[in-house]
């Protein structure tokens, strides 16, 4: 008897539930729709813009390290302010395929076309009216996760606080190729200040190792690159629409050395008093010696 009552009660409860649901549905018909709540956007600290890997957006440059969501490209360097515009204009007369690396300087656009006639003042001196920022690298390209960025900033700040400012100088013109052999660079190699730059670079080794990143070269040649050109792609690669060279001409460096070498070494001394780290698009700089 109890068993049948239980079954009956269960069935009765189910029917009541169905009736209730039907009434609720009927009462909702014609009611105004509830506004969907809009979620707040994520903080920029938690997101990174998706970089374009299309060579057309980068003057033919090919990304050596494919973009990985959540990774931040990082570069540690010494900022240097030194006038170079006239020198680059002369170099582009020899190698029209060169692109300037100086911020705000000649970028290979029509504003500095190859058939422009330089003035006497701009061709006989390294100096121009603008002193633009150059970089002396202390690290290879580094790729950090979001949670590693603060550790890198702290490491560079510590290094700055324990290293005093020093004087350096440029010694000579030279050329380099990147590790992937896709670009050639016109550069100026450091003379005085090499030992101090090496000490700064070595000071990053432990942090880079802790973050599972590769340290700088075992026998570094500290330099600033002022221009670059694409190298011809391998024969089996598709034809590139971008201007390229097999290599920088053998007479480029001797020609620049003859024209600018003496003056470069005469006026090429500069103070190294800051160290910078660029993480994504954010740049953080500290004075050497712990100043502001």
UniProtKB/TrEMBL annotation:
An example Gene Ontology CC term for this record: nucleus
Region (Disordered): 1-61, 101-126
Compositional bias segments (type: Low complexity): 108-126
An annotated Gene Ontology molecular function: lyase activity
InterPro entries xrefs: Usb1
Keyword entries, A-Z: Hydrolase, Lyase, Nuclease, Nucleus
Coiled coil: none
Domain of life: Eukaryota
Pfam families cross-referenced by the UniProt entry: HVSL
Gene3D superfamilies xref list: Cyclic phosphodiesterase (3.90.1140.10)
GO BP field: U6 snRNA 3'-end processing
UniProt name for this protein: U6 snRNA phosphodiesterase 1
UniProt organism field: Hydnum rufescens UP504
């Amino acid at each position: 008897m109890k068993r049948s009552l239980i079954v009956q009660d269960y069935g009765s409860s189910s029917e009541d539930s169905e009736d209730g649901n039907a009434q609720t549905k009927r009462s909702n018909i014609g009611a105004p729709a509830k506004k969907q709540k809009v979620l707040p956007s994520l903080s920029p600290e938690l997101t990174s813009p998706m970089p374009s890997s299309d060579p057309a957006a980068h003057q033919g440059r090919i990304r050596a390290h494919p973009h990985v969501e959540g990774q931040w490209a990082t570069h540690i360097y010494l900022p240097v302010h030194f006038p170079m515009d006239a020198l680059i204009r002369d170099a582009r007369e020899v190698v029209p395929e060169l692109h300037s690396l100086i911020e705000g300087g000649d970028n290979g656009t029509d504003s500095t076309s190859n058939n422009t006639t330089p003035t006497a003042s701009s061709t006989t001196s390294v100096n121009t009216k603008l002193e633009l920022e150059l970089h002396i690298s202390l690290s290879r390209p580094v790729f950090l996760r979001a949670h590693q960025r603060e550790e890198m900033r702290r490491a560079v700040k510590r290094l700055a606080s324990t290293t005093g400012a020093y004087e350096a100088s440029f010694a000579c013109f030279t050329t380099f190729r990147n590790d992937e052999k896709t670009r050639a660079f016109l550069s100026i190699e450091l003379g005085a200040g090499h030992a101090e730059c090496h000490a700064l670079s070595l000071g990053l080794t432990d942090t880079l190792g802790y973050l599972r990143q590769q340290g700088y070269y075992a026998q570094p040649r500290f330099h600033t690159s002022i221009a670059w050109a694409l190298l011809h792609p391998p024969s089996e690669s598709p034809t590139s629409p971008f201007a390229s060279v097999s290599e920088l001409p053998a007479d480029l460096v001797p020609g620049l050395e003859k024209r600018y070498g003496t003056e470069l070494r005469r006026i090429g001394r500069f103070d190294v008093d800051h160290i910078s780290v660029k993480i994504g698009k954010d740049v953080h700089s500290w004075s050497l010696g712990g100043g502001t």
